[in-house]
Task: inverse folding
């Protein structure tokens, strides 16, 4: 009888797992089975463990894990660049960025969105998982008004919101994390398992940093972040033309030059500009008056211009 | 055999229906329950990470919730719905579930992993990360900034 349950029952329980997507569903089944003496205690434990492992392997990264990963990514980047310390400017940047984030598709991450300035003439903006967004002084200097600054930040918020950084982590690595967490050994939290987890964390951080600084996101991810940015700018009251206007500037600068930073990781600015313009035209978004915002932008940025 | 399968299935569906009285877990460091379904509505109560709240109704992006006897509105992105909460069952099964949750809690990329990673990599500038992450704009500042710039209050004006 037990054997027949093993064959049919295990299959049934796994089916239940996939229908309900939760090991607790399986556990109810096995508890009832064990309680009525239909399956052995060992079988019950084995099936429960299998269900937990299957769930762990399939689960996405939690907001809290994303936060700690993002902190490590930011700590790595800040080990390579210097932080530009200018309180009034940092405050202005955070006012633009944090209010935009609140209007975004993902207003809340575990630790919230924060914006910092990298002391570099390079042109770059980097979004760490969880919402720490770093922008270079060189990039800030190229923005002509608050509409363009908001466009840059909206694009980066789009990457955080779409969890693009996490997609940079090698799938095999995350599967290994998941398998380790589902294992009996890890549950007893031995030192060797912790060391393995730290090394997998380290690898994941490197995957994200490499994508941010060297290889760049895919064109598809950039296009998606641009579309999220346009919708966010429009919804929040900014002129979405800030995005194509800024992309045009970068495209002109990029053409014919071998430069560092964003120019190596973000090809095809011209194409992106055209796509953004066609989205704006198709939606017939009205032009917006931004005289007041232009004034405060100039005041905030005067120290670095 | 068929009887057993039916029995197990019945158990699953019972668990499912109990769980449907939606309980959600707070997934931000701190969530704020508000009087109204707006980001800048007056505060009712602060809820720390990992706490469970009862979901009473949903309107658009906002959930009407109850926590420690207080009721109010919370943005959906601050919580994660728990589809199965066996702790709503009683007795041995509930205890088992709690044990399992405790065993799995704190696993993954946690503060302990961060600490071990920092000890191993001294060139990491966590001091600067903390500095960047401490730059929080408070609600009054943010509202002033939005209004002065003729922008739209996110989540709707009062």
Result:
């Amino acid at each position: 009888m037990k054997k027949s349950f093993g064959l049919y029952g295990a299959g049934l329980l796994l089916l239940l797992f996939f229908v309900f997507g939760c090991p607790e569903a399986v556990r109810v089944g096995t508890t009832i089975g064990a309680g009525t003496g239909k399956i052995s205690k060992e079988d019950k434990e084995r099936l429960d463990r299998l269900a937990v492992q299957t769930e762990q392997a399939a689960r996405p990264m939690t907001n809290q894990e994303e936060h700690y990963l993002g902190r490590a990514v930011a700590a790595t980047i800040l080990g390579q660049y210097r932080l530009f310390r200018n309180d009034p400017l940092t405050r202005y940047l955070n006012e633009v960025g944090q209010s935009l984030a609140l209007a975004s598709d993902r207003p809340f991450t575990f630790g919230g969105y924060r914006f910092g300035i990298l002391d570099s003439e390079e042109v770059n903006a980097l979004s760490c998982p969880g919402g720490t967004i770093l922008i270079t002084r060189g990039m800030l200097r190229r923005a002509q008004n608050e509409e363009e600054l908001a466009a840059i930040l909206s694009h980066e918020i789009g990457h955080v919101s779409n969890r693009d950084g996490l997609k940079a982590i090698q799938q095999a690595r995350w599967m290994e994390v998941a398998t380790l967490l589902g294992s009996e050994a890890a549950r007893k939290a031995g030192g060797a398992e912790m060391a393995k987890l730290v090394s997998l964390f380290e690898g994941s951080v490197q995957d994200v940093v490499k994508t941010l600084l060297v290889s760049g996101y895919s064109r598809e991810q950039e296009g998606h972040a641009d579309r999220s940015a346009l919708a966010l700018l429009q919804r929040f009251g900014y002129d979405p033309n800030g995005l194509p206007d800024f992309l045009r500037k970068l495209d002109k600068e990029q053409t014919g030059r071998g430069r560092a930073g964003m120019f190596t990781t973000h090809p095809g600015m011209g194409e992106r500009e055209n796509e953004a313009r066609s989205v704006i035209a198709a939606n017939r978004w009205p032009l917006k008056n931004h005289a007041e915002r232009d004034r405060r932008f100039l005041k905030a940025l005067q120290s670095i211009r | 055999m068929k009887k057993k399968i039916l029995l197990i299935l019945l158990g699953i569906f019972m668990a499912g229906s109990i769980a449907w009285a939606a309980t959600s877990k707070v997934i931000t460091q701190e969530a704020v329950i508000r009087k109204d379904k707006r980001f800048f509505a007056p505060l009712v109560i602060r809820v720390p990470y990992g706490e469970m709240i009862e979901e009473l109704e949903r309107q658009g992006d906002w959930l009407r919730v109850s926590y420690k006897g207080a009721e109010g509105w919370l943005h959906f992105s601050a919580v994660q719905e728990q589809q199965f909460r066996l702790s709503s069952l009683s007795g041995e099964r509930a205890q088992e579930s709690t044990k399992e949750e405790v065993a799995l809690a704190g696993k993954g990329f946690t503060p302990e992993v961060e600490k071990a990673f920092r000890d191993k990599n001294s060139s990491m500038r966590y001091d600067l990360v903390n500095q960047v992450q401490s730059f929080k704009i408070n609600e009054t500042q943010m509202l002033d900034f939005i209004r002065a710039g003729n922008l739209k209050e996110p989540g709707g004006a009062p």
